[in-house]
Amino acid sequence: KSPFQELTRREKEILQYIVKGLTSKQIAETLHLSQRTIDNHRANLLRKFNRKNSAEMVNYAVRNGFVVSD
């Protein structure tokens, strides 16, 4: 089963913003959520994709067609 299938709608949305290069603070402001909430989602995404950092996660997500980078 693909890790992408296990993501919530919100996690998919946040992943798209991470791929675009937004910081947790910028994502939080865009979605009207706290930065801590975004950081928690980011941590969940890293865990679900089994990656150590955002760069690895973005690379993996783009390579596997989960998201489209601009």
Q: List the uncertain runs.
A: none
Q: What is the count of DSSP helices, taking H or I runs of 4+ residues?
A: 4
Structural class: mainly alpha
Q: What is the tally of beta strands?
A: 0
Order of helices and strands: HHHH
Give the CA-based shape.
globular
| Rg estimate, integer Å | 11 Å
Q: What percentage of amino acids are in beta strands?
A: under 5%
Termini distance?
A: 27 Å
Helix content: 55-70%
Q: Main β-sheet, in a few words?
A: none
Write down the overall mean pLDDT.
92
Give a written overview of the molecule.
This protein is an all-alpha fold. It is 63% helix and 0% strand. The protein is globular, with a radius of gyration of 11 Å. The mean pLDDT is 92.
Summarize the structure.
By secondary structure, the chain is mostly helical. The chain contains four helices and no strands. Helix content is 63%, strand content 0%.
Task: Break the fold down into its secondary structure elements and pairings.
Layout: H1 9-19, H2 24-31, H3 35-49, H4 54-63
Helix pairs in contact: 1-3, 2-3, 3-4
Keywords:
70 residues; mainly alpha
